[in-house]
Design brief:
The protein is α/β, with parallel strands linked by helices and 312 residues long. Helices cover 41% and strands 9% of the residues. The chain contains eleven helices and four strands, in the order H-H-H-H-E-H-H-H-E-H-E-H-E-H-H. The structure holds 2-acetamido-2-deoxy-beta-D-glucopyranose (NAG) (3 copies).
Length: 312
């Protein structure tokens, strides 16, 4: 297949580009294919550009061969029926693409996609899955196979029962966590119809793939940060020691991990306040900025009074 690949991909990219202009999801989407949209146009070019770019920017050494990674990735789903994917078919790709995450830097998230990534700062502060090479390369993209040439479907990717890519990526990521690990949860999470959901959701990728993959010999403490939306007032049914957080505590202590839970830690509150500076929870910032003015005013007043007294 090696020799055929470039020609097929060329034919394919013409197909996908001229076929239908799919708009890409702006935010990162953790699920792979969705209904009524096909493989992301220019998938190969995006993959290769992101892959080489990531390694140049982060000075990855030794360098991973991105062309080889693409072939491993493409080989996992191409020339198969769209839902015919197994977790293990992506393993050669993950084995080649998964690099070590530095000690104490692994950040997991569930229901807090935007906030967790603002805080991780593309791996500068912490590293989420999307800040690692395999997660970065495929974040927000769609793909699915086709048994016929060109090997993948540009127009329609069906909603498959089995979508192994992100769970498998998460497993490889979690297996490599070392030291203290961190988890950002959403204490005011709601489903699509607006009903409250557990912060520690049993069906989440964290609960199903990441937690069971943590290496007990390498990880001891799990810091859990439970965030509540600024517009939702306490009391919260989902917070440290309550609701699903109590269940998480039981699971972790049963597995031999220590859990340190914190509700709305200030470093994440500040991050939320960036976009809502006038929210009542955030007004401390204008209160502190008033304080120095008051002091300057008092000092000036004092000096004026003093000069008057001395002059008299
Ligand atoms: C990781 O965090 C633990 C606990 O805070 C600390 O004792 C240890 O020195 C840290 N390790 C590194 C490599 O920073
Ligand atoms: C928590 O979930 C709600 C609804 O599911 C969402 O609108 C909100 O942005 C989430 N909060 C955080 C901090 O991610
Ligand atoms: C893509 O999927 C649609 C819907 O299942 C199908 O009609 C079409 O033939 C497929 N295209 C390819 C190239 O397999």
């Amino acid at each position: 297949m090696g020799n055929r690949l470039p020609l097929l991909l060329f034919v394919l990219s013409i197909f996908c580009v001229t076929g239908k202009a799919n708009s890409l999801p702006r935010a990162s989407v953790r699920s792979g294919p969705t209904e009524n949209t096909g493989t992301t146009p220019h998938l190969q070019e995006i993959f290769l550009g992101r892959c080489w770019g990531f390694q140049q920017l982060w000075e990855v050494s030794p360098e991973v061969d991105c062309t080889d990674l693409w072939e491993k990735f493409f080989g996992a789903f191409s020339y198969r029926e769209p839902c015919d994917q197994t977790a293990s078919s992506y393993d050669p790709f993950f084995q080649a693409a998964t690099l070590e995450t530095p000690v104490n830097r692994t950040l997991f998230w569930s229901g807090t996609n935007a906030l967790a990534h603002l805080y991780s700062d593309e791996g500068r502060r912490y590293s989420t899955l999307e800040d690692t090479l395999p997660g970065h390369v495929l974040n927000g993209l769609r793909w699915c196979g086709s048994a016929r040439a060109p090997g993948y479907n540009c127009t329609v990717c069906p909603q498959c029962q089995n979508r192994p890519f992100w769970p498998e990526a998460s497993k490889f990521f979690a297996q490599r966590a070392r030291g203290d690990v961190f988890l950002v949860l959403n204490g005011t999470r709601r489903d699509a119809s607006g009903n409250p959901e557990d912060a520690f959701k049993a069906t989440s990728i964290f609960a199903r793939s990441e937690l069971p993959s943590l290496n007990k010999a390498a990880v001891s403490t799990i810091h859990v940060w439970v965030l509540h939306d600024l517009g939702v007032d306490p009391p919260y049914s989902e917070s440290c020691g309550k609701g699903s957080l109590r269940r998480l505590d039981q699971i972790l202590s049963h597995d031999g991990f220590r859990m340190i839970c914190q509700d709305d830690p200030s470093f994440l509150r500040h991050q939320q306040c960036v976009d809502a500076p006038n929210s009542p929870v955030c007004v401390w910032s204008s209160a502190t900025s008033k304080a120095p003015k008051q002091t300057i005013y008092n000092n000036v007043l004092f000096l004026i009074l003093l000069s008057i007294v001395l002059y008299l």
